[in-house]
Amino acid sequence: MLDMSIRENLFETKQEMTEGFTALFKPLAPFFTAEKPGHQVLGTHGTVYNDERQEVEAFLRPLWGLGPYLTEKDSPFLEGYLEGIKAGTDPKHPQYWGEVTNFDQLIVEMASLSTAILLNQEKIWDSLNEQEQQNLHAWLIQVNDHTIPENNWHFFRILVNVAMKKCGKSYSQDMIDSDLAVIDSFYLKDGWYYDGQETQIDYYVSFAIHYYSLLYCRFMSDEDSERTAIMKDRAIKFAQTFKYWFDSRGEAVPFGRSLTYRFAQVSFFSALVFADVEALPWGEIKGLISRHLQNWMKQDIFTPEGLLSVGYHYQNLVFAEGYNAPGSPYWSFKTFILLAVPKEHPYWQAEVQPLNIQANPLSLPVSRNFYQYNQDRSHLQMFPAGQFLHYQNHAGPKYSKFVYSSYFGFSVPKSNYLYYEGAYDSCLALTEDDHYFRSKDQDTKYEIAADRIIHYWQPWQDVSIKSTIVPLENCHVRIHEIDTQRELNAYEGGFSLQGEASAVCQIAGQYAVYKTAVGTSSVEGIAGFTKADIVRTEPNTSLFFPMTMLPHVKGRLERGKHLLVSLVSGRLVDEVLEKPVIVIEENQIKISQESSEKYVELRK
Length: 604
Prior knowledge:
Number of strands: 22
Low-confidence stretches: none
Oligomer: single chain
Number of helices: 16
Helix content: 25-40%
Shape: elongated
């Protein structure tokens, strides 16, 4: 069972960080069995890889935390891991992990094992006899003979080869160099990479590419000083704007795939400390990490046994990817690389500093995002453009909504047949007959300007849309210029919000507002919409709330050209909306809020 005192842990001192890790690790204890060394069965749901690989993943993935822990402390679980490693890498043992194939999930799990060896050569590698070392080497080095995806996976192979190099076993320097060259080809500028596809700039940039780069810097700075200097410089640049993915409460904006890895979102900052790269003041880094972990420990992320569940703010398989197995959430343990940082390090002595956000809003085209905070930085909204990912579950909702919120989250559909089943928050959903809805997925073209985001998209071949999003204080304006050769119904969704019996629900004309003890979500049709409504969405579609209500406005589109304009707002309990004045003229729209004026030119 989970020690519930973890919900009060501040995660500021090394002692607190150690206690937090041990509290999270302890519920795994009953799943270590002598009958099946090297395996753990943590659940029953399926993945794209088989049960055998699920069990190996569940066994090896917690090493992301236990490896750093072992650098300074002993653990009763070390013996279980040693026995599991011996059995899993012995071809003659019934629990042998097996031969590796192309694109194998086992390659992913080699990374945590290799990192644990690099951190604890004496406790792990040196404790094996010669035959056991040969078995372990033979099993790991298989990775050099197999095809892997053209993305962050190249670092798994790098870590294996570096670990074998440090242990005095055969390895491939050519493979290390070629894999690093592939990673380098993903580099953009200002510290930003993409993860194999130019349309994917998500948390894999931080908790994969930069994270592994910083591990490489720590283990290979003497042998590869020129390359590690470049990696550190890029990490410093990246930190200056990646902090814009977090709000002042510690919540990270939910965006992209693999969100079940939860507090791995902040692991990049832990890796900075591990590599001794003060990209931001140590106190600012400590604030980012500690607030983030505090925030996660207050969410319903645990199973009754105390295990990390697949889900986000609560247990949820609806939004999960096909590679999210019961043991997958322990990727979040990457944040505990901090446990390998000596207590004398200045990070541990630093006082926590608040989130330091200077530019607000921030337009950052290199990251394919536009960032905007409220006044006290407790609510972050991120407006992406040009982002998408093929062959992964719910790619459109995870990458292509108009806005993502650190306070309201976002939703994924259970079905596209009916509007409430699709939970189409923060997007425009279109349908021919109120069945089978389509919303924006990959942009055909996009622009991220200093004060707006523009999407060009085609939900059907004969329907072209230009959507201009204008962020304002506590709200944003959406302007859709539509050219359609088919009759359509258009639904503009605001932010989903937790359903409450005491909520204030107001619908009047083209205006809908839903107000709870948590916050307020409202949407108003300014032009082209004829009706407002609030719908209860299908349960478990929101990443934040098990059941939500969704304010939206609707309009009917005949064949031809149309202009839809709406005002969307999601605000905290004590925030007031200073409603902008929106004037639609023949060739432009004028938007005024307080002393600010913006003009949007319309297509002729």
